[in-house]
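Example S7 (structure tokens).
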């Protein structure tokens, strides 16, 4: 009896000790993971669908870039990557969506030119472009292309300048919204060519190009990605590229500087951001996927056909690049008295 009691007592104690030991090891493991800035779920990133928010309508250059990026990185990450188009308010609506998302790596922003310009356009934004975002990678740099309807009597940059000077304020150019590359490239042209064309804002490249094709607007300084196929098909006439040097993708086209506006140059770009406080290992995993993606055949095709310069940079390079872009365009916004209506 006595020995049986001792055996039973010892068995209970043994089970209790094992349970406490198991709990202790679990707590220790969580503490180690927390010390690395992760949660157990984030340590296995990604484990669900990733969303890239595009702050423009579907069908434009940014949308094309985002969808190509999603297609390529999902193979490497092993989880689906979807696109959510949230156009409006000069990219602010879509950008704010990501700024207020959980910092877990599952809501990302495909940022563009406007991300560096909006701080100069708005006295107050519903987010801080510096404090509310964590850079992932500068994916690519590009230029814009000046296009008109093939039925237009404007056949060159010289013609555009002549027509604009003869009819101040009557020629209009389509944009993707106030402060986008299509807008400021046109405003830079106004300033440097000493002409006055009127900007007409749209919620993305696709609706603007639709009106250009329909003859409702006269010209666009649009992204190459949004217009290249239409130029090749003869549905749009290209006049020039906005880069400082000619593009290998369009060797027959002069630069705006060559064609009559010395010193003119305007550049576009695509960069991926996550909400601030996204764990560093998650940022590193995404950056790794981007670096691999830009070497893919799909991106090589975009590079060759549309003159993109693929980058796939480290996060800090995106921060440095955007800081330079902010400084570059701040003066034009001020001098041109560009205001958000």
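Recovered sequence:
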């Amino acid at each position: 009896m006595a020995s049986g009691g001792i055996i039973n007592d010892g068995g209970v104690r043994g089970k209790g000790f094992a349970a406490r030991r198991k709990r202790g090891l679990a707590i220790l493991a969580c503490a180690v993971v927390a010390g690395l800035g992760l949660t157990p779920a984030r340590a296995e990133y990604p484990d669900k669908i990733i969303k890239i928010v595009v702050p423009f309508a579907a069908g434009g250059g940014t949308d094309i870039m985002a969808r190509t990026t999603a297609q390529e990185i999902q193979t490497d990450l092993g989880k689906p990557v979807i696109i959510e188009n949230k156009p409006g308010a000069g990219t602010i609506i879509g950008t704010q969506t990501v700024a207020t998302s959980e910092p877990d790596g599952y809501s990302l922003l495909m940022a563009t030119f406007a991300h560096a310009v909006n701080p100069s356009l708005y006295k107050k934004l519903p987010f801080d472009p510096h404090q509310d975002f964590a850079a992932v990678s500068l994916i690519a740099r590009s230029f814009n292309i000046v296009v008109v309807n093939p039925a237009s009597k404007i056949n060159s940059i010289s013609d555009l300048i002549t027509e604009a000077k003869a009819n101040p304020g009557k020629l209009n150019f389509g944009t993707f919204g106030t402060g986008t590359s299509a807008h400021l490239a046109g405003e830079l042209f106004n300033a440097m060519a000493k002409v006055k064309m009127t900007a007409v804002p749209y919620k993305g490249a696709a609706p603007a190009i639709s009106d250009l094709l329909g003859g409702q607007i006269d010209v666009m300084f649009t992204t190459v990605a949004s217009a290249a196929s239409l130029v090749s098909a003869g549905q749009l006439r290209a006049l020039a590229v906005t880069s400082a040097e000619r593009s290998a993708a369009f060797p027959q086209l002069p630069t705006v500087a060559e064609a009559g506006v010395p010193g003119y140059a305007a550049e576009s770009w695509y960069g991926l951001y996550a909400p601030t406080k996204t764990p560093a290992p998650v940022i590193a995993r995404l950056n790794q996927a981007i670096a691999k993606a830009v070497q893919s055949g799909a991106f090589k095709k975009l590079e060759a056909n549309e003159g993109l310069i693929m980058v796939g940079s480290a996060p800090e390079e995106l921060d440095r690049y955007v800081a330079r872009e902010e400084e570059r365009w701040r003066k034009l916004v001020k001098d041109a008295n560009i205001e958000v209506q």
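Notes on this example. The first helix runs from residue 2 to 35.
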